[in-house]
Amino acid sequence: MMIINDGVQYLPQSQSGIKYRIKKVKNELVYRYLKKLVCRAGISDTADFCWLELGCGPGSFITQLESWFTNLKIIGVDASQVLLDYAASKTVRARYICAEAESVPLDDDSVDIVSLMQVIEHIEQPSMVFEEIFRVLKKQGLFILTTPNLSGLGSIIMKKKWQGYNDKTHISLDAYDNWLDKLKSANFDIITSGTTGLSGIPLARWFPINLLWQPWQIVFGFFPWKYGESITIIARKR
Questions:
Q1: Per-residue confidence of the chain (238 residues) as pLDDT tens digits?
Q2: Cβ neighbours of residue 199 under 8 Å, at least 6 residues apart?
Q3: Using alpha carbons only, what angle is made at residue 215 by residues 214 and 221, rounded to the nearest 5 degrees?
C-alpha cells in the first residue's frame, strides 16, 4: 500500500508568477531526457503505443507526453482522486484510473511503457509493484524508475537532515545498487542507469557552485555515477 493522504499537498501551489514559470521550464527540460532515452530504445514520435504512468499525481508529466507523441495512448493511475481530477482538467487524451500501484485494473501484456517516478519510496512493498508492472508490460516493454538515492552524497553528508527523510511517507528508501538488484530479481534487464547531481547538499545548490552540475543535469538528465541525489533506471521486461 502507498502511504499518502488525499493528495492535496501535491497539487501545484500556483499557476502564475516567475517562480512557477521557471519551475515549469526546468521540469520540461528535465523530462526531455526521458523522451530521448525512450526514442533510443526504439519508440518513435509517431508510434502507436500505450504508456502507463503509475502515481501520475497532478499530471505534469502526462502533459508532456501528450505534446510529444501524437498517437500515444496514455493511462494515468494514482491513489488520489483529487490529483486525478486535477490531471484530467489539464490534459486532453489521457485516461485516468484511481487505484493502488500494487493492483492495477489492466490486462496482462497490455502496455508498452510504464513510468514510476518518485513514487516507489512511498510504497511499503516495492516488490509487489514490480510484479504488477511486469504483468501489465508487453514482452520487451520498457520500465522507467526514478527514486531518491539513499547512497547518494546528500544522504551520506547530511545524514538525518537529508531532504529524503523530510517526507515521512518515504518508507522504502534504498541505495542505488540495491534498486538495480531488485529490478534484476524481478526479471528486468537494465538498459541504462545513473543518478542526478548534488541537490541534497544545501551548499551545492548555491551560486556559483550549482553551475558545476545543474546545467549538465538539465542537458543529460542524470550522470553515470551512483552518488547523486536521485536514481534513474531504464529497464526492459525479459
A1: 554 456 677 777 666 667 667 667 777 777 888 888 888 877 777 778 999 999 999 999 999 999 888 889 999 999 999 999 999 999 999 999 999 999 999 999 999 999 999 999 999 999 999 999 999 999 999 999 999 999 999 999 999 999 999 988 999 999 999 999 999 999 999 999 999 999 999 999 999 999 999 888 888 889 999 999 999 999 999 9
A2: 154, 163, 205, 229, 230
A3: 80
Grid cell locating 16: 502564475
Read off the amino acid at residue 32. Answer: R
Specify whether the CB–CB gap between 54 and 133 falls below 8 A.
yes
- H/E stretch holding 98: strand 95-98
Closest CA to 24 of 90, 98, 114, 121: 90
Query: For the chain, which domains are there?
Result: 8-237 (3.40.50.150)
Q: Is the pTM of this model over 0.85?
A: yes
Q: List strands edge to edge, sheet with 111-117.
A: 95-98, 73-78, 50-54, 111-117, 137-148, 230-237, 188-195
Mention every residue, 6+ apart, whose C-beta is less than 8 A from residue 123. 1, 2, 3, 101, 102, 129, 171, 172
